[in-house]
Amino acid sequence: MKKLIIIAGSGNYPRLLIEGAKRAGVPQVDVVSVAGSTWRATRAAADHVMPITIGTIAESIRKIGTMDYDGAILAGQVNPLSLFRGRFDREVTSWLKSLPVKNAHTIFSKLVEKFAESGVAILPASLYMEDHLPGVGPLTRRDFTPEEKRDIDHAAAVAKDMGVHDVGQTVMVKSGMVLAVEAFEGTNQAIRRGGHLAGKGSVIFKAAREGHDMRFDIPVIGLKTLKAMRRAGATALGFQAGRQIVLDREDVVEYANKHDIAIVGVESGLPPAPVRL
Question: I need a labelling partner for 59 at 20 to 30 A (CA). Which of 35, 44, 87, 110 fits?
Fold first, then answer.
């Protein structure tokens, strides 16, 4: 890999990806900066920056295709509401209209298809992120309690079935009752929604389905997730070991320990996210 470009949404993820690629010896890492999304720190870490608006992504893809990149990575969050409220050109509007079902898988698959047509391969979003992909076991001082473990197992089973339909990745459970299943609103909003129903004592499980395309929409948690859990009264978070990006891990673990929240990697029997080609 000599020349990589990252299509960067919000959050620390794209910056950490740039740093990981640099440590791995990639000499040039550029960024597509999406207006209203990409953080300043991400732009500062890149070698070159291409500013775009989300509505002109089709034109930008064609431009990227002329610049001899070895690959591209989609990283960071884009507000889901932008897909409904964004001002798109006719070409992007026609892409969206052509999708009978709109979810992360279908939308990002369309982007992957368009990048391929331009001659640029979309690579797994987990590349160069090995420092942020925890394995099996607790990250925090404490493990699950027996009661939390029962609810985590139930949430994991629900998440597995939910993944078949590409609905979302997060399930919230308390005392065997499903409080929230993530839809298009995202993890943190789903946690807040579930928290309104049950108060303290719920658990969260976040998972990528079997066969999940790791080129996009890889499961991610960060400090915002933990803060949403605390406000919702959730006491434990389970995730698939080797298949979950944990951003700002030290801050996340410190916050979780302070508020007695367990964070534990669970063996899923599924392959880990790839970190090298």
Answer: 44
| Helix residue ranges, H only, the chain | 13-23, 40-45, 57-64, 82-85, 90-97, 104-118, 146-163, 187-198, 223-232, 249-258
d(CA 37, CA 11): 8
Instruction: State the Cα torsion 25-241-126-32 to the nearest 10°.
Output: -120
**Length reported for the chain:** 277
What digits encode the pLDDT tens for the residues 241-275?
999 999 999 999 999 999 999 999 999 999 999 99
| In the block, residue with structure tokens 């029962």 | 150
Residue 44: CA count within 13 A, CB half-sphere: 4
The three-state secondary structure class of 7 is strand
pTM comes to 0.89
Quick one: DSSP state of residue 95? H
Q: What is the pLDDT of residues 182-220, one digit of tens each?
A: 987 889 999 999 999 987 999 999 999 888 888 877 899
